[in-house]
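2024-03-11 09:14:02 DEBUG pipeline.ingest accepted 1 chain
2024-03-11 09:14:02 DEBUG pipeline.ingest length=116
2024-03-11 09:14:03 DEBUG pipeline.predict start
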Amino acid sequence: QVQLVESGGGLVQPGGSLRLSCAASGLTFRWFAMRWYRQAPGKERELVARISSSGGSINYADSVKGRFTISRDNGENTVFLQMNSLKPEDTAVYYCYAALYGMDYWGKGTLVTVSS
């Protein structure tokens, strides 16, 4: 079955960095567009970044532009989210999402806490 497994979350101080990874299995990864979402306590889930199947098209939420970078390694079936200059408002559970022609899959999420 399809599995998306996020890792790399944790506690970091404001201004710090984290790199999230999402390892995919059970699907032809290179065919799927990938996204990172996040959900902060008491808030709706929001799109953070997305990357096309080839990696040639990338978009970011305005709130993370210039600080976060999404990338993928189709040979390793993994998508990454490099997060720099982290702020307390980046605190959330971060989810990996895969989509292809009406098929979509979610990971279980990894918690990122930005606090001093």
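2024-03-11 09:14:41 DEBUG pipeline.report The mean pLDDT is 97.
2024-03-11 09:14:41 DEBUG pipeline.predict end
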